Amino acid sequence: MSEDKFDPEGIRRTSSESLHEQLAERLRVLVSQLPQDSKVPTEMELVERYGVSRTTVRRALGALVESGLLVRRQGAGTFVAPQKLVHPLDQLRPFVSIFASVGKRPEGRILRFAWSEEPGDLVGLDVPEALLVRRLYTIDGAPQAMADISVPGAIGQLISRAQIEEHPIYQVLQQQLGLTLSHGEITLTSVAAPADLADPLGISAGEPLLVLSRTTYDKTGRIVEHAVYHLLPDRFELRLTVDADNIENMSYSFRRPAPTLVMRPTEPPTPLA
Asked: 65 near 72, Cβ under 8 Å?
């Protein structure tokens, strides 16, 4: 970053506003003028430029991280937060379509391609064995998400590593195996990142991750894949649009809590005269 992007004037020790609040406000304006994913100066560079303590700099940067304007990346520094990728949940769609919808071209590196009969690897499949695939999604080398995909053995034996390295799982199932996908079940949770995920995702163990768990069925009702996506929360937004057609008419009192809820069928609106 060039020297003229930062002007040390304006930080006043006599102001009623704290030093870290003044610094945070100046950095907020400057960050808004920088490209997404650009690196901001280090703590020591800001200390020298503004003549404040390292604690003040950390508090100012921390405030911008909490507000979502900056992100910290393990071993790399602090960066302007990228635009979040929105994953609509209104219909079943390939995960890679999230990137394609905003013109991104992710790489999908295969970290695991193996068979397993371990019960812990077969959760949600109800089969004796499964093909396990772990794929790391990156953009320009920066980690975005991790996918752990399980495919029932009868289907997995028809899939080669070359196919998975080349194409998304839905493309393999539909176009190369000729399966017709019918519907899916999606569950959203969050977890503290375990070490085996934190390292390839470039974060510290224990940092929060969004988790999207998806089970996909074919037209016969058979499970054809189960996928768990661990997402960096500063990179993704999960969005569901719902309508209010036939919304439940519920009767309940918080002042006099009842042991049961009284649900009444929704009456169609009375036509206006």
From this structure: yes
